[in-house]
């Protein structure tokens, strides 16, 4: 499935060709598709490795960032596993972009059949986020490539968020309907009126949606896909919690102990990223667009959760 105009095609044969060029000792290991996100395609290599091929040149830069910083951050996220880079692939004849190989992490994404206790998962996730945010950040001279819009303020995003709202309105609400879309726009505008964040910059994962978490034996086991790794304000970090069931979400709020302003800014971020994903992917990736729609509906359905922080 092609998601972006500048996307580079890749499949199992691509992986095999790259391995023959750069890691011939792995070239005959079994290669199996292991899922695909909006930024990367994944392939399991043998029993212990995972190959990630970026879809675009932009996401290839994100892989380099992971290789640079994940080894230093991993100890701060213990006991939760994070991806361990083991090979820095370079462009080859079969694929023109950098690529990566990681240790395989056993687990499955959070789902009703894989999570024993959603409240416990929410509490554990809040703990992982706290430890990540407490990790020492590099000084400003060493932060090249670590700036990202989700670590900034809401105001500079208003233009493109408004454009996506307009696109969805022109599409009849894309399954939300005009009334819900108007309420979501109100949540976004409310966020714009809040004071700007003023706390210290912290390490941010950037995209803690359920597909970037792994569980084992019913409990949180790993945090994966640090392509959005950045240093900035933590408001948007909490936004993907609206992708989780209400029990996990409420437990997260209790454990995170966010200020009301941070909570409301994170809710506005959930709306911003949700409307962008729903608009951008509604034709190219209907499944992901449906996830974005579900997040937006959860924001509306969870209006009474505002007292939780």
What does this structure look like?
- Strand 2 and strand 3 form a beta hairpin.
- The protein folds into 2 domains: 92 residues, Phosphorylase Kinase, domain 1 (2-Layer Sandwich), CATH 3.30.200.20; 190 residues, Alpha-Beta Complex (Aminoglycoside 3'-phosphotransferase, Chain: A, domain 2).
- It contains 8 helices and 9 strands.
- It is globular and about 55 Å long.
- The strands form 3 sheets. A 5-stranded antiparallel sheet has the order 1-2-3-5-4, sandwiched between helices. Strands 6-9 form a two-stranded antiparallel sheet.
- Helix 4 runs antiparallel to helix 5 and helix 4 crosses helix 7.
- The model has no long low-confidence stretch (mean pLDDT 93).
- It is α+β, with helices and mostly antiparallel strands.
- This is Aminoglycoside phosphotransferase domain-containing protein.
- InterPro entries: AGP_Transferase, Aminoglycoside_PTrfase, Kinase-like_dom_sf.
- Pfam families: APH.
- It comes from Kitasatospora setae (strain ATCC 33774 / DSM 43861 / JCM 3304 / KCC A-0304 / NBRC 14216 / KM-6054) (Streptomyces setae).
């Amino acid at each position: 499935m092609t998601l972006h105009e500048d996307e580079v095609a890749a499949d199992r044969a691509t992986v095999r060709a790259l391995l023959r060029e750069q890691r011939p000792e792995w070239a005959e290991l079994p290669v199996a598709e292991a899922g695909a996100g909006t930024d990367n395609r994944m392939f399991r290599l043998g029993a212990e490795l995972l190959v990630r091929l970026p879809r675009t040149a932009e996401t290839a830069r994100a892989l380099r960032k992971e290789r640079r910083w994940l080894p230093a951050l991993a100890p701060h996220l213990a006991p939760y596993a994070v991806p361990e880079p083991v090979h820095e692939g370079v462009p080859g004849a079969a694929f023109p972009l950098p690529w990566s190989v990681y240790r395989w992490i056993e687990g499955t994404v959070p789902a009703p059949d894989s999570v024993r206790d959603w409240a416990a998962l929410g509490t554990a996730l809040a703990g992982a986020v706290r430890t990540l945010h407490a990790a020492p950040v590099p000084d400003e001279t060493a932060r090249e490539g670590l700036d990202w819009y989700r670590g900034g303020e809401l105001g500079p995003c208003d233009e493109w968020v408004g454009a996506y709202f307009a696109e969805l309105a022109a599409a009849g609400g894309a399954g939300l309907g005009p009334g819900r879309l108007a309420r979501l726009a109100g949540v976004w505008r409310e966020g714009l009126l809040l004071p700007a964040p003023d706390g210290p910059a912290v390490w941010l994962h950037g995209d803690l949606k359920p597909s970037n978490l792994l569980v084992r034996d019913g409990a949180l086991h790993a945090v994966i896909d640090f392509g959005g790794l950045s240093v900035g304000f933590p408001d948007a970090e909490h936004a993907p919690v609206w992708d989780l069931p209400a029990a996990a979400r409420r437990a997260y709020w209790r454990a995170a102990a966010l200020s009301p302003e941070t909570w409301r800014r994170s809710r506005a971020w959930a709306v911003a990223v949700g409307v962008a994903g729903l608009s951008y992917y509604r034709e190219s990736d209907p499944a992901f667009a449906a996830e974005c729609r579900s997040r937006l509906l959860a924001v509306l359905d969870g209006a009474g959760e505002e007292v939780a922080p």
